[in-house]
From TrEMBL:
Protein origin, superkingdom: Eukaryota
Database matches in Gene3D superfamilies: Tetratricopeptide repeat domain (1.25.40.10)
InterPro entries in the record: PPR_At4g14850-like_plant, PPR_rpt, TPR-like_helical_dom_sf
Source organism per UniProt: Artemisia annua
Repeat in keyword set: yes
GO molecular function: RNA binding
The protein's name in its UniProt record: Tetratricopeptide-like helical domain-containing protein
Keyword terms, alphabetized: Repeat
Keyword Repeat attributed: yes
One biological process term in Gene Ontology: RNA modification
A Pfam short name: PPR
Length: 178
């Protein structure tokens, strides 16, 4: 028998990811206990792995709330998890919270995820509210919104937006798919 003790990298990349994929809650909780016992819980990648794993089991909020100075990866994991479990107001609250902390590429990506989720729920009104909150809209943000409108057959709205977008007037593009 090999006496192998996983380090932070192994916990994050293999063990926690496997627990989430296999929906192995009991084993995941044991790994969480191991990270506390060995002080691996202080590693930001392990924390993000725990959030990512536990979001599959509606248990991620407790981990997330106990992480000091959670980074963008942790926020994105929570936003995605809340979105998958249809906790859309919580996902939007987290999106706003991270937006107050930093305006990064990851923040914009998180906004696109929220726009996409609202669109999949046929809530283009809410998608547009999130879109309007993103201060720097690039082609990815515009595509997320336009995709949402076309998913619910609001093609006229999508076409009108694509013709009048500030993104296209700034870049001189004639359409969004360059």
């Amino acid at each position: 028998m090999v006496n192998w003790k996983p380090d932070a990298f192994a916990c994050r990349t293999s063990v926690l990811t496997s627990c989430a994929s296999l929906e192995a809650l009991k084993l995941g909780r044991q790994i969480h206990g191991y990270t506390i016992k060995t002080n691996l819980y202080k590693d930001e990648f392990v924390n993000n792995g725990l959030i990512d794993m536990k979001r599959s089991f509606d248990d991620a909020r407790r981990v997330f709330n106990n992480v000091p100075d959670c980074n963008v990866i942790g926020y994105n994991a929570m936003i995605e998890g809340d979105s998958r479990h249809e906790n859309l107001s919580e996902a939007l609250d987290l999106f706003r919270e991270i937006g107050l902390k930093t305006l990064t590429r990851a923040y914009i990506f998180a906004g696109c995820v929220v726009i996409y989720v609202y669109s999949k729920c046929s809530s283009t009104f809410d998608s547009r509210l999130v879109f309007d909150e993103i201060p720097e809209k690039d082609i990815v943000v515009w595509n997320a919104l336009l995709f949402g409108y076309t998913q619910v057959s609001e093609n006229g709205t999508a076409l009108k937006l694509s013709r009048t977008s500030t993104f296209m007037s700034k870049t001189g593009q004639t359409h969004l798919w360059h």
